[in-house]
Amino acid sequence: MWEMAIQHALMPAVSTGVSNSSHCSGHKEISISISVSNCQIQENVDVNSVYQIFPDEVLGSGQFGIVYGGKHRKSGRDVAIKIIDKLRFPTKQESQLRNEVAILQSLHHPGVVNLDCMFETPERVFVVMEKLHGDMLEMILSSEKGRLPERITKFLVTQILVALRHLHFKNIVHCDLKPENVLLASADSFPQVKLCDFGFARIIGEKSFRRSVVGTPAYLAPEVLRNKGYNRSLDMWSVGVIIYVSLSGTFPFNEDEDINDQIQNAAFMYPPHPWKKISPEGVREQRSRDTHPGTNVKGPETKVQGQRSRVNGRGAEIMGQRAPTSVKSSVETMSAGAIDLINNLLQVKMRKRYSVDKTLSHPWLQDYQMWLDLRNLETRMNERYITHESDDLRWQHHAELSGLDYPLHLANSPLCNSRRGAEFYQEQEEELETLSERISDL
């Protein structure tokens, strides 16, 4: 039945009305095309005349329908087309789809998937978007160890945060952040990422709360699971889970145990493999290696118990796997900074949870190599929207002090040649290091 519904959805749309000219003329095709770029509505436009849809190329399924590969007939440009059978979904879900389209229309950012246009018939809705190349979940699952290195995780998470900052600036909360909703623009090791699937997104002011049911349970904050009011900090909890999943290949919590108890048990949250036990001495050792130190992770050192949920497919489709109780730390261990940031995002109390800006300024994401990776991406894209030119001099000065190479094409800025500017950023860096030391002592 489902296969028949798909084939039916790809057939030209027809109305149930009869032509005035003749009762024998059959059904008349009716379609409305909404152009997102100029907000014009054109009647009597058939989606099949504008786009070719490939029924055998299923790119995925979202909250409201199946996404197929397609091609713009005139330009040959590849697109993704989400098809929704209005007869299969209740009015409430149809309104949520319109909510997604309306939000995408208001967002114009390199870190958010582009919406081309929408076609609507009495029976179906066709949402046409840019076509990308896989998602973050596929990247995690296809990696050699089933998890990502810190360098790549930082690179991807920073882009997510920059896009999220744009959303929150517009009072838009995604409400369903997870790796499968983070699309990759290419198959490169360091790709551009774009947020997608805004079916659960909400307009929430800075000091406002909502109570409607949203999101995917494995990535949802406690206040949503407990049917309490939530705000934009909901997205930040999801970012914490994404970082955890990316670095470990497992979910941080078991669904059948209290989140508060699990968070307090550091040995359960961060088992030796792949997480390394972090002691105050470990933090001090890291401080001698890194530009900005992480902070100490507090928690009882008990044996790991319970079931660790491993990422295995999409959404909350996971399989239980007992965490190892006595595994030696591997060579590739997580830094104190990564664990500290996760702990500050997975805060049960919303007021204690890090914001987007505070997360971006966390020492773990203030990394020279990551900054170079992001600048290389921006250079390839010929667009600067992730990093800011005000940081150029600071990182050039850091490279000089550390004896690191600094790309020549990035050293031509007049700001970078300012002696007074170098002194200013040295003072700023010293203040940041002092602040990090104070944080680690708390």
UniProtKB/TrEMBL annotation:
InterPro entries: Kinase-like_dom_sf, Prot_kinase_dom, Protein_kinase_ATP_BS, Ser/Thr_kinase_AS. GO terms for molecular function: ATP binding; protein serine/threonine kinase activity; zinc ion binding. It comes from the Eukaryota. One of its GO terms (cellular component) is cytosol. Residues 281-292 have a biased composition (Basic and acidic residues). Keywords: ATP-binding, Kinase, Nucleotide-binding, Serine/threonine-protein kinase, Transferase. CDD domains: STKc_PKD. ATP binds at residue 82. Residues 53-365 form the Protein kinase domain. Pfam families: Pkinase. Residues 281-310 are annotated as: Disordered. The keyword Zinc-finger does not apply. GO terms for biological process: intracellular signal transduction; phospholipase C-activating G protein-coupled receptor signaling pathway. Belongs to the protein kinase superfamily. This is Serine/threonine-protein kinase D1.
